[in-house]
Amino acid sequence: MRWTLRFALPALILGLTLFVMLYINYDQWDQYDAPAYAWASLQNTFRGSTLDNPPPVAGKVGDKVVIMAKVESEDTDWVAQNLPDWQHAIYTVNPSSTTPNTTLTTPLNKGHESMAYLTYIIDHYTSLPSTLVFIHPHRRGFRDAWHTDTPLHDNVDSLRRLRLDYVHKNGYVNLRCNWNPGCKKPHRKNKHITAEVWTEVFAGLSKASFGQPDFVPGEVGAACCAQFAVSRERVLERPKSDYEGLRRWVTETEKDDAQSGRVLEFLWHVIFGMDAVYCPEEKACYCNVYGRC
Question: Is 200 helix (H, G, I), strand (E, B) or coil?
Fold first, then answer.
């Protein structure tokens, strides 16, 4: 009996500690999809990773492009190395005196990734590829790329799994299916998208069906975090002047870099023709977007 109590008490304390930790951190674990990440990591450890040594991609560069913003210190060589069948437009937002002349840059370092996204559309409006994918510059990582919705939070895996036929069928797809954060009911009273902000952003833009200034929805919801794919046809449903107007808002608003970027993060789906609340059921989203049925 003494030995039983001796081991039972530490086990009970450990169990309670783990329970409390899980309870306190549940929301973050849910956002990071920690169980799936842990399981995928174990599989890679014992079976050998297929992502660290990706198979070569056959064929020529396709009619599709990856667009991203980066700071000069970030390494984005992984794009060309692992996605050779994709065109890529990588914008340095903070060029220095040593930045090569061939480097793509943005007019201003503001609005986080939105300045690069809009600049690409504006500069290539008459010659867009059929599929445009907008993503962040970090390839993977449990913390750095937690918003990338594959088991190992890996953008190479995300783009290789992406069902381009569904992108063209739907016009717009969010690359994140996990509802947390952005789609859960409490999140839809979005503090970044006030009536004033909505009116400012859409003032003067065309296409009333894409969010007219005098119609402010009660809720705005979409899974975070500004990584998505659109078809050329969907982009062209708006005139070039709309994208110029959006970039002008980012440039002129009193909101800072982070705040202005956050506003557009939760409006890209509206800009590209989806309802103010665009939250596909998670299981269906994984199946439609990534073929994980």
Answer: helix
- Nearest-angstrom CA–CA distance, 282 and 285: 5
pLDDT at residue 44, as a whole number: 63
| Tens-digit pLDDT profile for residues 38-50 | 555 556 655 655 5
Q: What angle do CA 202, 207, 210 make, to 5 degrees?
A: 65
Pairing mode of beta strands 172-174, 104-105: unpaired
Residue 132: strand pairing partners: 65, 230
Here the tokens at position 85 are 């069948």
What's the pTM value of the predicted model, to 2 decimals? 0.86
For the sheet with 64-70, list strands across it: 104-105, 87-92, 64-70, 131-134, 228-231, 172-174
**What's CA 285's distance to the chain center, in Å?**
14
- Phi then psi for residue 229, to 5 deg, are -130, 145
Residue-wise pLDDT tens digits, 9-23: 555 555 555 444 444
Nearest CA-CA partner of 82 in 52, 123, 125: 52
Burial class (CB in 10 A: 0-12, 13-18, 19+), 116: buried
| Sequence-ordered list of residues with C-beta below 8 angstroms from that of 130, at least 6 positions apart, any chain | 63, 64, 168, 231, 232
Q: How far apart are CA 275 and CA 221, in angstroms?
A: 9
Q: Which residue has the tokens 């970039």?
A: 247
